[in-house]
Specification:
The complex is a heterotetramer, with two copies of chain A (79 residues) and two copies of chain B (162 residues).
Chain A (H helix, E strand, L loop, with lengths): L1 E6 L1 H7 L2 E5 L6 H11 L9 E4 L2 E3 L10 E5 L7
Parallel strand pairs in A: 1-5
Antiparallel strand pairs in A: 1-2, 3-4, 3-5
Chain B lengths: L1 E4 L5 H8 L6 E8 L3 E2 L2 E10 L1 H18 L2 E9 L1 E4 L3 E9 L2 H18 L2 E7 L2 E5 L12 E2 L2 E2 L1 E2 L9
Parallel strand pairs in B: 1-5
Antiparallel strand pairs in B: 2-7, 3-4, 4-6, 4-8, 5-7, 8-9, 9-12, 10-11
Helix pairs in contact in B: 2-3
Chain lengths: 79, 162, 162, 79
């Protein structure tokens, strides 16, 4: 199956804004992320949040063909 | 009214959106660019959003707030792009019959917005710039984290300086 | 900016007054005329002030708040005369480096304003009018107090109907 | 000594907006108020606040010649 990727903030600067990957059926977000880390080992230390189709998900979320998966750092915070 | 916009925030527009004949109180929060942060002289902030998801999350927060407190209406606007010192990057207005609910809900909404609405800021200060909020450091700045934040100083050609 | 005025309140004026490059947060409170109170259909409110003392007391409250919290600036405006449903009778804006202080101070300021700034309101509802806040009843309405407030119903020619 | 009087809200409607009274030296606000109540016994039940020269005072406050004494109900409150 094929999924679309989006990256934001500091991650976008490293990975580009968009991408695409082909995955085995049943793959989770965590599996996808690990495959990206395998390509770019420096990502291993990055604090990361996941969203699928514009909704926050855990790494264990199972992907479906055509999903849009977004990767981004924690939100800015501030007081 | 839940909006991510590149234009300056007009508070009157939010006030109009939450106006309600049954409201006795309207509390408004504006987050503005401060000229100083963590000892750095801030020149401007720059915001980036996951636009549609951010608007969805703002709507969802307002719906949660409306279940928790007796509110009349809520409006939330976040500006993206460059926001100079003194200008507002985010505005929240909440109307309610009574003020306690309006204050509590408005405060809760901005706290939650800053935790979960996918919008990030890059601080441009004298001598560099830094993504705010990536508390563990991004690869390019690891080891130079200061007070829980990461900084890239100077004009070196590093990814975060682009 | 601490003002008692007969004119409609313009929030942008208060925001300008509390604007400060060192402020990261601006919290604004608006008290608006609600169409209902204690089961009565409110048509309009009418405010009367001890004008100069009210402005002095507002200034004094802001000074006390500035000692208690790390604020940048405070502005307070109270409208007097007739305030129709949906319009603001009072506005308070507080700016601070961080939002917690701005929220707490703004909430405290409106609570205290309603306790001690010498401004009174008369509620005009369908079928009568009533001074709000004279909890023990004025002589002309004694014995007809309802839920801690006094009401003169109907169009009888009594002092409070003038 | 001579003091000026001001009345507000429901009290103004009963007493008029302004007045004047002559008092013995050393008179307090409370003494002045009691003299008004003596003239208008229905005032006895009115909750009342005092201000002298635009500052809240207690009934025990001693008046001076030329003072402006304001009488008014508690402030409107509301939540």
């Amino acid at each position: 199956m094929r999924v679309r990727l989006r990256f934001f903030a500091a991650l976008r600067e490293q990975m580009g804004a968009r991408g695409e990957r082909t995955l085995k059926p049943g793959a989770t977000v965590e599996i996808l992320w690990r495959s990206l880390v395998a390509e770019r080992p420096e990502l291993a230390a990055v604090p990361i949040r996941f969203a699928v189709n514009e909704t926050y998900v855990e790494g264990s979320h199972r992907l479906a063909d055509g999903d849009e998966v977004a990767f981004f750092p924690p939100v800015s915070g501030g007081r | 009214m839940f909006r991510v916009t590149r234009r300056p925030i007009v508070v009157a527009t939010l006030l109009r959106a939450v106006r309600d004949p049954a409201a006795g109180a309207v509390v408004t929060f504006l987050g503005t660019t401060r000229n100083e942060n963590a000892g750095r002289r801030v020149v401007r902030l720059e915001y980036e959003a996951f636009h549609r998801m951010a608007e969805r999350e703002m709507k969802a927060l307002a719906a949660t707030a409306a279940r928790r407190w007796a509110l009349r209406k809520v409006a939330m606007v976040h500006r993206i792009g460059v926001v100079p010192v003194g200008e507002a990057s985010v505005a929240i207005a909440a109307s309610a019959a009574h003020r306690a609910e309006a204050f509590t809900a408005c405060h809760w909404l901005i706290d939650r917005l800053k935790e979960i609405v996918p919008i990030w800021k890059r601080e441009h200060f004298r001598g560099g710039q830094v993504w705010i909020g990536a508390q563990q450091g991004t690869p390019d700045t690891r080891g130079r984290a200061a007070s829980g934040r990461t900084a890239t100083r100077g004009r070196r050609r590093r990814p975060v300086d682009r």
